[in-house]
């Protein structure tokens, strides 16, 4: 048996993920709804992507942006949920050093990419309602390409220091992460080093990215509401608002789950520690599962495209 002094200086080569440390007996039961939500999210997003690709009438910028959102959802689900289910079903708790920080990078960057995509979609709706005559010249395929590059570059570059800073810390003893996923705080607090800068950077970068997106989304919808209230033609205002309905619902899904997660983390001393862990997992499942369903139900063109796809099959 290694002495305490030898143990404390041994380098960490892998981590152990302990999901719901106080309720591990529930894991098998919890895996059923999680696996069903995962299959729903993957199937719905794959169907939406295939429909947009095969249906020529959907080859428009607004649907390309929706395709980008579906791709981000798929990657987020695949990054988090299979590992969680492997822990629940097969007790495969170990995760390598590099895989842990790769997961951390994807979660941080793709989460902010989703937020940024919602912001671009809000701008698309703003132009469609406030400047309808200029819409075809402003929202083009070229605009979508530039917007996609901006979404990936901005959020990838700002999120990269989070796992880099965390990976450069010294992990000399404890390697048990009391979480189902490699979040920055769950991992970095195992370090022997001072993690003040690490935590500060994630806080500033995260709220700068998410906060700026939220402000621009609110501004876009403020201008949209102002323009709609000026419309005097009967039924025109309702029709204009209905074009924003699906996008607005998606933003509510994304923001509500994220807000609840933040509140529970701030009040962690008053609630069981397993609650934020569960909410973090659900945040990677509920919006991806509901996003394509909302657009499929509320958008006539997508609904018709899915019906055509099903008839082909």
From TrEMBL:
The chain crosses the membrane at residues 30-50, 62-89, 95-113, 204-225, 245-267. Residues 44-295 form the G-protein coupled receptors family 1 profile domain. The keyword Acetylation does not apply. Its main location: membrane. It is a multi-pass membrane protein. One of its GO terms (biological process) is cellular response to lipid. GO terms for molecular function: G protein-coupled receptor activity; olfactory receptor activity. It holds the Pfam family 7tm_4. It is found in: Membrane. It comes from the Eukaryota. Keywords: G-protein coupled receptor, Membrane, Olfaction, Receptor, Sensory transduction, Transducer, Transmembrane, Transmembrane helix. One of its GO terms (cellular component) is plasma membrane. Putative odorant or sperm cell receptor. This is Olfactory receptor 56A4. The gene is LOC109261295.
């Amino acid at each position: 048996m290694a002495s305490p002094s030898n143990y404390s200086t041994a380098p960490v080569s892998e981590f152990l993920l302990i999901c719901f440390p106080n309720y591990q007996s529930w894991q098998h039961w919890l895996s059923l709804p999680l696996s069903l939500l995962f299959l729903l999210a993957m199937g719905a997003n794959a169907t939406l992507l295939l429909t947009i690709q095969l249906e020529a009438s959907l080859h428009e910028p607004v649907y390309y942006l929706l395709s980008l959102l579906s791709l981000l959802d798929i990657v987020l689900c695949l990054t988090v949920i299979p590992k969680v289910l492997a822990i629940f079903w097969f007790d495969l708790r170990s995760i390598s050093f590099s895989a842990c920080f790769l997961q951390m990078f994807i979660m941080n960057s793709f989460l902010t990419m989703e937020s940024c995509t919602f912001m671009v979609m809000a701008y698309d709706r703003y132009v469609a309602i406030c400047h309808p005559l200029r819409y075809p010249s402003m929202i083009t395929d070229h605009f979508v390409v530039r917007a996609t590059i901006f979404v990936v570059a901005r959020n990838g570059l700002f999120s990269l220091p989070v796992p880099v800073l965390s990976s450069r810390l010294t992990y000399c003893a404890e390697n048990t992460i009391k979480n189902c996923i490699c979040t920055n705080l769950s991992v970095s607090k195992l370090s022997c080093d001072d993690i003040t800068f690490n935590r500060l950077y994630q806080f500033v970068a995260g709220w700068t990215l998410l906060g700026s997106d939220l402000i621009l989304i609110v501004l876009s919808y403020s201008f949209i509401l102002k323009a709609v209230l000026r419309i005097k033609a009967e039924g025109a205002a309702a029709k204009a608002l209905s074009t924003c309905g699906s996008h607005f619902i998606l933003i509510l899904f994304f923001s509500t789950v994220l807000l609840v997660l933040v509140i529970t983390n701030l009040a962690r001393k008053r609630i069981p520690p397993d609650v934020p862990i569960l909410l973090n997992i659900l945040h990677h499942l509920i919006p991806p599962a509901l996003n394509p369903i909302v657009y499929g139900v509320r958008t006539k063109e997508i609904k018709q495209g899915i019906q055509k796809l099903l008839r082909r099959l």
